[in-house]
Amino acid sequence: MHRRQPRAKFFAIIIAAACLAAAPLAAAPRQGATARVKAAPAHRVLANGLEVFVAENHSVPLATICIVFRGGAIAQTPETAGLFHLYEHMLFTANAKYPNQAAFTAALNRMGVPNWNGATGAEYINYYITVPSDRLEEGIEFWAWAVKKPVFDAAKLEDEKDVVINEIRGYHADPDQIMENAIESRLFTVAPWRKNIDGPEENIKKATIADLEKMRDEYYIPRNAAVMIGGDVAPAKAFALVEKWFGDWKGKAAPQLGEPPQAAFPSGVRLVYTDPDYYEGLVGVNLRWRGPDVMRQTKDTYVADVLLYLLSSPVGRFKSTLMEKGPGLYDPEYIDFSYPTARDGGQLSFSTFLTLGESGATVERVAALESTLRAEFELIARDPEAYFGKDELAKAKGKLIDQNLLSTEVASSFVAGTLTFWWAVANTDYFLGYERACSSVSFADIASFVRRYLLDAPHAVGFRMATAEFEMEPGIVEAIVDGDWSFVGPDNAFWWQRR
């Protein structure tokens, strides 16, 4: 029988993962053009609190204009979960200058926009367009009307509700999202709705124009926003144009986000998901620990990034040991340890695949993997320099710094991805000080981090396997019951199903 191969998973800390997939447009570089974005973009704050960043890169005659707001899932309540997603859709439909979607689209075409999009994420919302650089003012004006003067039409709202609900249904039917939400809804006990951007369908169905207007007044305001411009632009001109079109924008103080903090993870979370369409012959295993929050445990976030690079080598000691001593792991390329930087609810995640057909029952092998991991963490905490080797720390720091620099190469992805992410999730000082902070990480820092976050804190574990193979394994149901595991699936994965 043909075995479906698991999708490749690549180790990548959030510096790379945060960059949007905005493809650079081919054009001949101008003679003497700047080869890359300047590492520190020009920065200004308008009197109304709006931050403006300009990143010069004159290699092609294009400019990307991005506006970003702090919000998304992090700002949700149980009653508003999903409405940021709906608002994103509505912002593209009409405003005081462009009264309908046709006019909105015509404006994009008139400016020669080759690249535009918007997205709602866990901790920010952003919208961007790329225009020929001689249409910079038109692009800035375009976004000014869109975010300052949106028009919410009742009939269009009902249409967009249907679109969003269909997207939600696809998301909620995705087995990867079912497993992810099953874990997070049980770990983030303070506010699990702050980890899921979609929320229940019922919230979308009952949303009103008044709800969107309230959201606009609370979050879509200058003190909770930044305009980021990158490409063939002069900072002085860009600042003047943003002042011209956004300077009269009013709004109150920025909202407080991510409070109260998500708590430590509870003990004893052990989940199993039998998926009819899962990879044949494999068991996916995931372990989670509560990680640092970037604005609360800032130094620890840098240590986490360095540690994960040390663990990432497919031929390094960590993965080699797991392949040798672990209970039948699939491949070192499919051993991942990640830390997505977050303002609210940071977490450390280990994932891998076990190969079915090895000796031992699945539940026992998952327990053996937990023990093997803990033994390696004990060795790292005891003497990380001996574990990794003296030179490896410098190499890991160098790779992180190189990756940080690489993220500045393309203006569009830099302002609409990297800079947007860091401004929203932490602040731009965090990004600009990243090289210095990573350079200061020591083996003592790593030992302390491993002890506090991985050894002295509870973790959750879940595994996922094909339903047919689960049903064929003798004794697995009894082992699940005896081990106090919980079955999860589409009927109990999401936080609103468990209230």
Q: Gap between N and C termini, in Å?
A: 42 Å
- Domain tally: 2
Secondary-structure-based class equals alpha+beta
In DSSP terms (H or I, runs of 4 or more residues), the helix count works out at 20
Would you state the CATH class of the largest domain? Alpha Beta
Using the CA coordinates, give the radius of gyration.
Answer: 24 Å
- Spatial strand sequence of the major β-sheet: 1-2-6-3-5-4
Low-confidence stretches: 1-35
For the biggest sheet, the summary is:
6 strands, mixed
CATH architecture of the largest domain: 2-Layer Sandwich
Question: If you consult CATH, what is the topology of the largest domain?
Answer: Cytochrome Bc1 Complex, Chain A, domain 1
Average pLDDT number? 90
CATH superfamily label of the largest domain: Metalloenzyme, LuxS/M16 peptidase-like
Helix content: 40-55%
Q: Please count the beta strands (DSSP E, at least 2 residues each).
A: 12
Can you tell me about this structure?
The chain is an alpha+beta fold. The protein has two domains: 28-246, Metalloenzyme, LuxS/M16 peptidase-like (Cytochrome Bc1 Complex, Chain A, domain 1, 2-Layer Sandwich), CATH 3.30.830.10; 270-483, Cytochrome Bc1 Complex, Chain A, domain 1 (2-Layer Sandwich). Helices cover 43% and strands 16% of the residues. The chain has 20 helices and twelve strands. The chain has a six-stranded mixed β-sheet, sandwiched between helices. The protein has a six-stranded mixed β-sheet with strand order 9-10-8-11-7-12, sandwiched between helices.
